Amino acid sequence: MHNKTLAELAQGLEQGDFSSVELTQAYLDRIESQDSKYNSYITVTPELALEQAAAADTARQSGNAGPMTGIPVAHKDIFCTQGVRTSAGSKMLDNFISPYDATVIQKFNAAGCVSLGKTNMDEFAMGSSNESSFYGAARNPWHTDHVPGGSSGGSAAAVAADLAPAATGTDTGGSIRQPSAFCNLTGLKPTYGRVSRFGMIAYASSLDQGGPMAKTAQDAAMMLNVMAGVDPMDSTSADHPVADYTANLEQPLSGLKIGLPKEFFSDSLNPEIAALIQGAVKEYEALGATVKEISLPNTALSVPAYYIIAPAEASSNLSRFDGVRYGHRCDEPKDLEDMYKRTRGEGFGTEVKRRIMVGTYALSEGFYDAYYKKAQQIRRLIQQDFVRALSEVDVIMGPTTPSPAFRLGEKTSDPVEMYMEDIFTLSLNLAGLPGMSIPCGFSNGLPVGLQIIGNYFAEEKLLNVAHKYQQATDWHTRKPEGI
Amino acid sequence: MEWEAVIGLEIHAQLATNTKIFSGASTAFGAEPNTQACAVDLALPGTLPVFNESALRMAVMFGTAIDAHIGKVSVFDRKNYFYPDLPKGYQTSQLFYPIVGEGHVDIELSDGSTKRIGVTRAHLEEDAGKSLHEDFANMTGIDLNRAGTPLLEIVSEPDMRSAEEAVAYVKKIHSIVTNLGICDGNMAEGSFRCDCNVSVRYKGEEAFGNRTETKNINSFRFIEKAIKGEIERQIDLLEDGGTITQETRLYDADKDETRSMRSKEEANDYRYFPCPDLLPIVIDDDYIGAVRDSLPEMPDARRARFVETYSLSEYDAGVLSNYKSLSDYFETVVEQSGDAKLSANWVMGELSKHLNQNDTDITASPVSAANLGGLLKRIKDNTISGNIAKKVFEIMWADGGTADEVIEAKGLKQVTDTGAIEKMVEEVIAANTAQVEQYKAAPVEKRGKMVGFFMGQVMKVSGGKANPGQVQGLLKQKLDALCD
Amino acid sequence: MALNRTDVEKIAHLARLQIEESDVQAYADNLSNILDLVDQMQSVDTTDVSPLAHPLDAVQRLRADVVTEENQREALQSAAPAVENGLFLVPKVIE
């Protein structure tokens, strides 16, 4: 059962091939026996999962099943889950049992889904390798000496290792797409505001966006059907009609205009990756698409702009972790200041402290204009690049990452080297556009992702474009050895 | 050289919304600690703000009432600092694009002149919680019920030059916000708070001196005292060759002095930036127009109307128009009694005296406006005299009831029967022969005054119920007849 | 833009972060590298470019002024480090 897609599982449940309890138990057993190799879960919730599975089976028997009823999924440990520890990968929240459900969790509950547990992640979603997790790094099932990517590394590892059929992730600068690329998954970062952020622990509010990580585009569409929609609790969620994302997956691609930004294909791009991307583009041409070179001239600036805006917002978003109302508090504080400093010094890891300090500095008196305002102006330029390009083409394609999954520890000593990993993904978050990563081949046995970028609220089109490719290729069906 | 004070005020008015500015928790005062602090107010991880439509409308009401520029696009910013009563570690406020821009109010000074005071801006922000220092050894208790209560911070230009002007300005703003119904104005409960920025300089100088900001002043009287004290302190210090430190000071009402707040000494760097969890608030002319059309009559307009319609003096009209509750009361009394001047005298006299003595708000007056009007009607139609009316009022204040009920029950109805009055007049003349002789001996021009004695006697005999006009007429007639 | 130890200590204080003495230099080096990276922005002319704070051109929605949250003190304080009589306790605040 564990190697099936969501669509297949839904069919199996529908036909009565297995019950949700059986399915859920199978996944729980696999997690129990296998996850020590991958460290993909921070918290597994077997009792809750089986309870939800039993309720789903009952609902199905009484004819109240929807398309996702009884399907088990895993959630990134950034979504607050009532009664369950929600840690955001941080010591700061190691003892935090959320008293409420995130909107995304509520929606999965309402859809009758089963939650297997909470997946590993970079601390507060700050990282590209999952190595900043307080709970230790998750491992890439394709090669356990390599990182699964980040920050949604646990979700990626869990799905790639068949420890969940699909999972939620969040993407602030590539955190859905990059781990999807590293683990041979189909990941979708929706348009900013498409999925509610309420209950999703904030890293950088104007960039954060939740989305699905799955085995196929069709599964991602099924997940997005659950997740998408305006939320009265999130002022920034978009009041824009929600499509049935599974409805138009089969649209033919003839006449599709693909733009290839020349800045994504510089000489410094790993040649194997460049070749795989070109191969995928050829496949699209075979499916009837036309290709044209475009320019996104400010691409290189997305790294500096992002590494001001995200830390600035984070420095403020993470001020609430002060040891007063919940979470970690240091032992025997001497006074108030001592409580603040030791609580936060102990509760946050190095990368989080680093970003808080960068953000604090960027917003401090005398530097605001040179850093924060400048970054927001560059953000405008980056958005304008995309708007211009997307007036000429339907989708933009390129690599998701400059290289395949790197080794654990390879980039931890130099944060700047790590930040450069995000070069192709950051600009979408800055512009608020939707993007996907889908499997398009292998380099030295490690998966490579094709990034597909669409216009605002073009998730339906992106999923269609991804799905048609997956019908013509089998990269996405490849499994790591032993799984 | 003569010193001159320069005063600017920041007023924080809690808006009278049902719920917090960014959450659906109640803002009611006085609940058990932390029972009105929801997940958003506690800044639980993942929670987000959603803006309260009433807070917006009330801010725009204030802006239109002071003839201010209204920000059609206003933006919430974050003011970052750590404090235990500030759950998010930042206060959501408006620095760069406030909802209300430049406006003004006119204040009336005791010499009868008016002065225009500029309002720089008024912006929306959230209140913090409360720190409770008593009851715990070496610990402070934090109650977050107040956290997230909407505040309108009204910032004045440094246009005031004396404590008197400052108080007149604060009272004016107080009267506007309470009149609009956007703030309950309760200073004791902290619904209406004032921070005073004070500096001094030699008269005629352009540059401002170093200023201090005095916080925590919770009555009009204390504002006056705190500012006076601070002006004196600064002048004394400067004249002794000292310098003024720019600092935050706290007013201690018990000692009637300000003192430096050590904890705020550290230079703050608030790292303001636009709040990414909230989008720009965009309103159009239709919205502003609709709010303007819905404004209740404002004190200045009402004052003019009182002068015009009721022929009240400027002073009386001013007093009666300041607060809507008082104005409404007054107008009901007029409606019932049919006499504006008499109504004004009673509302500002007997009624105000009783309210003050009993520390009672006019909205809780035991004598309703309708009942006071009913009482005055009985003066007008000669059922009772003004003096009896005061007695009736006392009884109404203490025991309730309408004037007619009291007059009936106590038998206070005025005697207007000419025969009965004539009888009393004759009795008094007969019983006071010595005074009658004096009257007869007095020159004609002095006699008028001497009638007063007989008046008093007759009123005494009648138990105050004789109609004074009739008594006076009859007395003059009878006494003068004796002189011929 | 290179940050020295004093800069790091100042920023860490502003952000209320305890940094071990032995780690200060490493933070100074890393933060300096990051600032060098972001300084690339300074070469771009952004005169007349309006800052982009939100990717979507959306405006704030308004919430009806109706009480929707009931008292949940017990549940919400269950995660608190120190509570007494319904109050969150912190080391004494000196004013």
Automatic annotation (TrEMBL), chain A:
What InterPro entries has UniProt attached to this entry?
Amidase (IPR000120), Amidase_CS (IPR020556), Amidase_dom (IPR023631), AS_sf (IPR036928), GatA (IPR004412)
- Choose one Gene Ontology CC annotation of this protein and give it: glutamyl-tRNA(Gln) amidotransferase complex
Keyword Transit peptide attached: no
GO terms assigned for molecular function: ATP binding; glutaminyl-tRNA synthase (glutamine-hydrolyzing) activity; transferase activity
KW ATP-binding (keyword) present: yes
Q: Which UniProt keywords apply?
A: ATP-binding, Ligase, Nucleotide-binding, Protein biosynthesis, Transferase
Q: Check the record and name the Gene3D superfamilies matching this protein.
A: Amidase signature (AS) domain
Provide the catalytic activity annotation.
L-glutamyl-tRNA(Gln) + L-glutamine + ATP + H2O = L-glutaminyl-tRNA(Gln) + L-glutamate + ADP + phosphate + H(+)
- Position of the signal peptide: none
Which E.C. number(s) belong to this protein? 6.3.5.7
- The protein's superkingdom reads Bacteria
Single GO BP term: translation
Record's SUPFAM superfamilies?
A: Amidase signature (AS) enzymes
Question: What sequence ranges are listed for the domain Amidase?
Answer: 22-463
The record's active-site residues are: K76 (charge relay system), S151 (charge relay system), S175 (acyl-ester intermediate)
Which PANTHER family does the UniProt entry name for this protein?
A: GLUTAMYL-TRNA(GLN) AMIDOTRANSFERASE SUBUNIT A, TRANSAMIDASE
Q: What does this protein do?
A: Allows the formation of correctly charged Gln-tRNA(Gln) through the transamidation of misacylated Glu-tRNA(Gln) in organisms which lack glutaminyl-tRNA synthetase. The reaction takes place in the presence of glutamine and ATP through an activated gamma-phospho-Glu-tRNA(Gln).
Family, according to the entry, reads as follows:
Belongs to the amidase family. GatA subfamily.
Listed under subunit, the entry gives:
Heterotrimer of A, B and C subunits.
Q: What is this protein called?
A: Glutamyl-tRNA(Gln) amidotransferase subunit A
Gene, per the UniProt record = gatA
UniProtKB/TrEMBL annotation, chain B:
A Pfam match: GatB_N
Q: What is this protein called?
A: Aspartyl/glutamyl-tRNA(Asn/Gln) amidotransferase subunit B
Q: How does it assemble?
A: Heterotrimer of A, B and C subunits.
**Asn/Gln amidotransferase domain mapped to chain residues:** 328-479
Give a yes or no for keyword Ion transport in this entry: no
Spell out the InterPro entries in the cross-references: Asn/Gln-tRNA_amidoTrfase_suB/E, Asn/Gln-tRNA_Trfase_suB/E_cat, Asn/Gln_amidotransferase, Asn/Gln_tRNA_amidoTrase-B-like, GatB, GatB_C_1, GatB_Yqey_C_2, Gln-tRNA_amidoTrfase_suB_CS
Briefly state the protein's biological role.
Allows the formation of correctly charged Asn-tRNA(Asn) or Gln-tRNA(Gln) through the transamidation of misacylated Asp-tRNA(Asn) or Glu-tRNA(Gln) in organisms which lack either or both of asparaginyl-tRNA or glutaminyl-tRNA synthetases. The reaction takes place in the presence of glutamine and ATP through an activated phospho-Asp-tRNA(Asn) or phospho-Glu-tRNA(Gln).
The record's listing under SMART domains reads:
GatB_Yqey
HAMAP family the record matches: GatB (MF_00121)
Catalyses: L-glutamyl-tRNA(Gln) + L-glutamine + ATP + H2O = L-glutaminyl-tRNA(Gln) + L-glutamate + ADP + phosphate + H(+); L-aspartyl-tRNA(Asn) + L-glutamine + ATP + H2O = L-asparaginyl-tRNA(Asn) + L-glutamate + ADP + phosphate + 2 H(+)
**Care to name a GO molecular-function term for this sequence?**
asparaginyl-tRNA synthase (glutamine-hydrolyzing) activity
Source organism per entry reads Neptunomonas marina
Tell me the GO BP annotations in alphabetical order: glutaminyl-tRNAGln biosynthesis via transamidation; translation
Automatic annotation (TrEMBL), chain C:
Which Gene3D superfamilies does the record cross-reference, listed alphabetically?
Glu-tRNAGln amidotransferase C subunit, N-terminal domain (1.10.20.60)
Q: Name one Pfam family in it.
A: GatC
The UniProt catalytic activity note for this protein reads:
L-glutamyl-tRNA(Gln) + L-glutamine + ATP + H2O = L-glutaminyl-tRNA(Gln) + L-glutamate + ADP + phosphate + H(+); L-aspartyl-tRNA(Asn) + L-glutamine + ATP + H2O = L-asparaginyl-tRNA(Asn) + L-glutamate + ADP + phosphate + 2 H(+)
Q: What class of enzyme is it?
A: ligase
The UniProt record lists the EC number as 6.3.5.-
MF-aspect GO terms: asparaginyl-tRNA synthase (glutamine-hydrolyzing) activity; ATP binding; glutaminyl-tRNA synthase (glutamine-hydrolyzing) activity; transferase activity
Q: What UniProt keywords are attached to this protein's entry?
A: ATP-binding, Ligase, Nucleotide-binding, Protein biosynthesis, Transferase
Protein origin, superkingdom: Bacteria
Any one Gene Ontology biological process term?
A: regulation of translational fidelity
Record SUPFAM superfamilies: Glu-tRNAGln amidotransferase C subunit (SSF141000)
What job does the chain carry out?
Answer: Allows the formation of correctly charged Asn-tRNA(Asn) or Gln-tRNA(Gln) through the transamidation of misacylated Asp-tRNA(Asn) or Glu-tRNA(Gln) in organisms which lack either or both of asparaginyl-tRNA or glutaminyl-tRNA synthetases. The reaction takes place in the presence of glutamine and ATP through an activated phospho-Asp-tRNA(Asn) or phospho-Glu-tRNA(Gln).
Q: How does it assemble?
A: Heterotrimer of A, B and C subunits.
NCBIfam families noted in UniProt: gatC (TIGR00135)
Instruction: State the family it belongs to.
Output: Belongs to the GatC family.
Q: What is this protein called?
A: Aspartyl/glutamyl-tRNA(Asn/Gln) amidotransferase subunit C
Species in which this protein is naturally found: Neptunomonas marina
